[in-house]
Amino acid sequence: ALPTDRAALLDFLEEDPEASAYTDVLDGRAEGSTVYLAKVLGQIAAVARVRRCAAPGTYSKFYELDSFIDTGHYGGDEHLDLENILVNPIFTRSTPGMLRQIMCMTGTCCAYCLLHPSVAIPAYLDFLTILRMRRLQDATFPADIDPARTGLTADLKMPAGPPALLHTNFRLLMQPKRDADTRIVVIGSSDAALSLVEGLISVPYLTFHRITMVAPGGLPDRTPMFRYDRLNYYDKELLWHGVAGKCSVVEGSLVGLAR
After folding, report:
1. What's the CA gap between 220 and 222, in Å, rounded?
2. Residue-wise pLDDT tens digits, 23-49
3. What are the two backbone dihedrals, phi and then psi, of residue 45, each rounded to the nearest 5 degrees?
4. Contact 180, 126 (CB under 8 A)
5. What whole-number distance in Å separates Cα of residue 187 and Cα of residue 249?
6. What is the reported pTM?
7. Long-range pairs of 221-227 with CB within 8 A, sequence gap ≥ 24
8. Which of 36, 128, 191, 223 is the most buried (most CB within 10 A)?
9. How far apart are CA 54 and CA 76, in angstroms?
């Protein structure tokens, strides 16, 4: 995007809260970020704000990124952070092609999108794959060890939130993704039920649109007491792995269903 596109960009964004962030990039006040526009017949159909990933090692440390790529095969400048993207609903299906073109123009092979736990996953990002949080994360280094003077990796900090992480790469973008409209009803919100839903929504080549969880009181609201010797979910993790944003939650029980 060029400064001359400012008026058309503001007209497209209208009252969107991210409008000021886009104008900051055009005015040169957001160093490292770039705005890309997708136009159809001279009209803006989608906008994206991206930057090169500063610390891709953070994602591989706290998320199960190695299930999809080997980070050792990619350089530090081949990772792209998708800060924000807005798409005209008419062109939702063209979002993967737009992102693939952005990756070609920036010379990157992997793309990531961080979403705050309270933000629902937009429909036009369904083609991205939700990465699971690592259940047993690496311990921090003792105070008397300096990672910079050893062969150890840097002691990276967990992102604030921590947010849900969406991911894609060239292999996943070129792989056809099917829409699954089969109705799936999961009874209860036990750890087994949550793990089942998490496994379904993290399949990279399928998009499930009709997953429903029926549980008394909805998703459990437990006190955050995660310990490294236990693998139970707690309330914040229910948001991390995308269950709250990718399936319908019905407060009720199996007995109360009208069959």
Report:
1. 6
2. 888 888 888 899 999 999 888 999 999
3. -105, -25
4. no
5. 10
6. 0.71
7. none
8. 128
9. 8
